[in-house]
User: Fold this.
Amino acid sequence: MADADVPFRILPRLTDRNRDFWTAGARGELRFWRCQDCGFYIHPPAPICPSCYSKDMETEAVSGRATVATYSVNHQPWMPGPELPYVVAIVEIVEQPSVRLTTNLVNIAPDAVQIGMPVRVTFEHHPDPDGDVYLPLFEPES
Amino acid sequence: MTVDVNTIIERRACISGVGQSEIGRRLYRDPLELTLDGCLAAIEHAGLTPADIDGLSTYPGPMGMPAGFSGAGAYDVIDALRLKCGWYGSGLETSGQLGSVVNACLAVASGLATHVLCFRSVYEGSAQGEKGRSAVLPGGGGGGGGGFKASGFTEWNLPFSAPSAAIWIAMFAQRHFHQYGITREQLAWIALNDRRNAELNPKAIYRDPMTMDDYMNARMISTPFCLYDCDVPCDGATAVIVSRRDRAGDLRNRPLRVEAVGTRIDGRPSWDQFDDLSTMANRAAGKQLWERTELKPADAQMAQLYDGFSWITMSWLEALGLCGEGESGEFIDGGANIARDGRLPLNTHGGQLSAGRLHGYGFLHEGATQMWGQAGERQIATPPEVGVIAAGGGNTCGCLLLVRE
Assistant:
């Protein structure tokens, strides 16, 4: 995305725990913490695996493919942001649908969005003195 | 299922009085004074004096942000009224706004206190001023100047320009509508029923009649919610007295026994990671409530169910088994079932959509008022003996079943 097209966003405060999630888009990757003992993906990041209680975790890239679990077309100008109306959605990643992201759907007309549609990640680059952030947004898969 | 009444200790508690301050869209009054007005009204209504109060419970406790969300904390009121408390507490992380009332029930049931003053106080109307809700959003709604960064809970929604519960709850509603074929024309009946009730409530914020056309032509906020699906920020304080039932017999009002409460949460305590996005934490709280009584959903003669956003009321109707799963659209359609003279009078004060966002406690105030036959023009013809009260949405939900003795 060209900078001129990038809307204002409130960016996340980066920490050691969330940095990979918010910055791996620089390499085109969507990364989540994953338990190295049982393979469970953990989101939002936490210091322990909720499935087996192991603390042996690393971040790993996933495919970036997801499914729209639900969405809403927002018409209200709450704060500076994307051009109205814009689509807020909850997507489930294909590797483990219990991992969800609240996100925006882009490159699709709001009235064309459907629950259950396949989507893939695309990143919105935000240069920032505390570290550049790459927001994982989603667009139709095909 | 046989209920062992000895384990249902909330039944040792009752609601003995309710009170409210002046209520208004924007009062620009001292929030602590409003809070105390509500508290003193409830104490007097119960036939008590401040010296009789030996417990205090409130939701959410002192909070600076978002502005206007909390008019006073527990210590503010304990000190202003010089209360001596055998038990007190406050907090946001509980089973909805009524979690504070449940805590009070457990306190009197355990003998830590006899008469617990419970309150919820807001001044969101004044705090937002003429700029509306965006004035109190994180980052100030002014473009996030000053290097504001999202962290904690907001980290996962603010960067995606989703700062409001209107959007989060709209996504639950959309999923629910998708699964069960529910329409906005059905959803409208929450707002329309609220408004026709508010017409008879002198303290309601909006009392002008509303038609289906008004609703369908209102501007969209976040699909499927239009303006009239969102509650109206206001100023005001609501208080209730929770008393030991064995010490309430000679008070002014017939005790409203707390027959059962629902506090359970069985999914992730999250707005977007909850396992089933067509329902919320209320599904477990509603189920738990009926596990603690031999009464059945069909015994409820009135329901006062939170409507911070209209769809939340539909969700509570299903969670509490007051209609079948996925059947709330059909149940409210046309408004006959939920009218004051219908099968299940609902939100008889106008709900938060029309009577103001008193944040949960308004429903308990109204339910008790109806059960005591004190609701004036909007009184249900036969004051209900059994009423269900519920508040909260998303990950914070709780409910009460009251029975007039």
Notes: The domain at 5-128+231-404 of chain B is CATH 3.40.47.10 (Peroxisomal Thiolase; Chain A, domain 1).
